[in-house]
Amino acid sequence: MNGPTDGTSDHADAKDRPDRLRCDAARNRERVLAAALEVYREHGPAFTMEEVAARAGVGIGTVYRRFPTKTALLEAIALPFFERMLSQVREAAENSEPAEAAEVLIRLVAERHAADGVRTGRLWGSALSHPVRARIGPEVEALLAAARAAGTLRPDITYEDVSVLLWTLTSLIDATNDVSPNIWRRYLELALDGLRPSPANSTSPASRDDWLRLVSASPVLTLG
Amino acid sequence: MNGPTDGTSDHADAKDRPDRLRCDAARNRERVLAAALEVYREHGPAFTMEEVAARAGVGIGTVYRRFPTKTALLEAIALPFFERMLSQVREAAENSEPAEAAEVLIRLVAERHAADGVRTGRLWGSALSHPVRARIGPEVEALLAAARAAGTLRPDITYEDVSVLLWTLTSLIDATNDVSPNIWRRYLELALDGLRPSPANSTSPASRDDWLRLVSASPVLTLG
Amino acid sequence: MNGPTDGTSDHADAKDRPDRLRCDAARNRERVLAAALEVYREHGPAFTMEEVAARAGVGIGTVYRRFPTKTALLEAIALPFFERMLSQVREAAENSEPAEAAEVLIRLVAERHAADGVRTGRLWGSALSHPVRARIGPEVEALLAAARAAGTLRPDITYEDVSVLLWTLTSLIDATNDVSPNIWRRYLELALDGLRPSPANSTSPASRDDWLRLVSASPVLTLG
Amino acid sequence: MNGPTDGTSDHADAKDRPDRLRCDAARNRERVLAAALEVYREHGPAFTMEEVAARAGVGIGTVYRRFPTKTALLEAIALPFFERMLSQVREAAENSEPAEAAEVLIRLVAERHAADGVRTGRLWGSALSHPVRARIGPEVEALLAAARAAGTLRPDITYEDVSVLLWTLTSLIDATNDVSPNIWRRYLELALDGLRPSPANSTSPASRDDWLRLVSASPVLTLG
DNA sequence: CATGAATGAGTTTTCATTCAT
DNA sequence: GATGAATGAAAACTCATTCAT
């Protein structure tokens, strides 16, 4: 279109402004992702690709260009969830006494999850191995160590226990948030009670083997 | 028909057991139900009616004759689950000290659920209102009262808390049984720890309102 | 086979009380037919054989024993319609002046059809060749002849014309009876007007050929 | 590629007519519609969506993309019928003396309906409210007024009467066209006779109420 | 004979995915 | 790259008809 005799004018355009397209593409990706989150919030994983496309204001072909599969799209929906998890860990570490940070984290995760309304709990299953996920574990571990040192956490509670606790908690929130949006709080307190030190606790942590098998399998329930 | 060795024994049989037909039908019903449980075990609620029919060795029309709807079939799958729950409550009550019965019940439910392998946890949601379900609640309540009296249970722990705990536990078992069939045990211990009395416990139970809303809603997570 | 020690005792029974069975069978037939008329009234030809059986209080096998096919049942439903037609012809002939009988007949048929509420119009199509049907034609013809002689009917109006008129009329009643149960009356008057003599009428009747083809074909629209 | 005689004319075409895609789609739509009309002609409304797809040479999904429901497809089949009706009204108005136009219209509708062979009569019932339908009424009314003024139509004949007459006529044609494709002509003449003025006519038109109920109900039998 | 259980082809409709434009 | 038309494999459910009891 810029060359007078050029037939493949689209291509020529692409060459002239290479980032223009990339920019548009990125914008489209974001719009699709936002739309997907929206429909996921409404229908859960039963949403339709066409619905996502319509909500994003793009053609369905565009959705498939960015996310070659519905599964891929679901994973992309799940990613920010882990990003948020990491930021919550840091928020807990920064804004609270070390003795409190572990408990604060758990409360934070639950509270935000309930407030958000997206049943992302179901998304944990995506076999997602993103760098961000790997970083969560150690930082949570640090929180727990501090709490243990401060004597506010049962010494035998491991990072894995907390992972499972958070999965359980978010599952419960997902399952009850619609009809009884506060009932999880009671359960949260019970669980936190279980984490506090007391003379009677002597259970031994889950076997390392069991845990590794769980982590390596898909779907996984683990944090990082 | 007149001689005892008469060849037309079918007729004689028909007379002897006038519900022969119903008997065959009942047998088919069982086969369908068994097949359904089997495919549910494999695919979860996403199973196909046709698959059930094939597995049962009957036509698809037969499946629909017994269970006019996929939902009806799902409920039929769920029913024995609640029946088993009730029998487990009684088993716990009969075979253990009152002080221990509550804990025994929880262990029993979890253990059997894990052994069974069917992800019946997902079935709690069926809006099933069968007499059997109504009977579970009071009997569990009795167990808890005894444990409370014996001082082996935190006094503020209600029947509702136990309901949610069991739902959580079975969900966890469902989610991990394939890959890490023992990890739920650790979590069970943690949860049981949380139920034991200790100086620090002072959380108040979930509000009656919240609970009623949850119970009346469908899907429900409650025991009875 | 007829020996006293015969195993096929049913047969023996049948022999002992031959009309007993026949009597029961006839009763069943009637019940099925009545039920079929009932469901036809409600659902039109879209009714279900099972519904008929249930309404009749018999098993579906019994329905099929009496009417080997849904079509056969439909035809059986249609039969009394023709019987009634014949009786209406006679009623018209007996209770009115010859000059009026033709018009009376048409009014009678329409009125009863509307009052009955069964959309039997759709049933004319059954390729029903019952003796009763053959008798209708000549008797109607006689009525028309009398009316022609009395000068109250256009001389070129044939029995066939009346047949088609009645088909048309009942179809209209069927189609409008639910929502506008009187509108057919206006149309009836228009049609009757068209049958009365007037200077201008000179159309020639339908060709005999056309008519015969129609009569011999199925579905047919003719009276007898 | 850029030369005017280039073989890859599609691309060039695509540029020239940017609605090429829509054009193809439209072509497919027409093919589906034509196929639907064809199968409707053969089986009536009992046709199968799959049959339509096969006949149109497209996948069944394509049929559903254009007509999201079988009902929608039926309505689409019915639409041209009404369009044709309107054009016939105009044709009658333009090509004949005002005194004759009403009769010409009725003859035209019947003749074309018979020639077409599609039993569209059954389609009048579709609760179709398309602009075209609204325009038919007034134009027919005008024809009737002219005929009334010219003394060729009974003064009490209303637009509604003609509507019902045409419904009746097309129903008759539908019912007889296969086996006796001319018999409706006789009936047409009888009906037309009924419309002509004569000293004896004094029936009053259908009550306005009855008519309105009929028009507002669905399925409707009315023209516009 | 009566029963009703069994059958399975057939129907409408949905939706992830591909591909021509 | 974007678009949305096309695809067709399922899936849930229906119902006329057969046949064992």
Commentary on this structure:
The structure is a homotetramer of 224-residue chains. Chain A is mainly α and 224 residues long. Chain A is built from ten helices and no strands. The model of chain A is unreliable at 1-16 and 217-224 (pLDDT under 50). The radius of gyration of chain A is 22 Å and the shape is elongated. The first copy, chain A, folds into two domains: 9-68, Arc Repressor Mutant, subunit A (Orthogonal Bundle), CATH 1.10.10.60; 78-224, Tetracycline Repressor, domain 2 (Orthogonal Bundle). Chain A is 68% helix and 0% strand. The first copy, chain A, has helices at 9-16, 18-43, 49-56, 60-66, 70-94, 98-116, 131-150, 159-176, 183-195, 208-216. At the A-B interface, α8, α9 and α10 of A face α8, α9 and α10 of B. Chain B binds a DNA duplex (21 and 21 nucleotides) through α1, α2, α3 and α4.
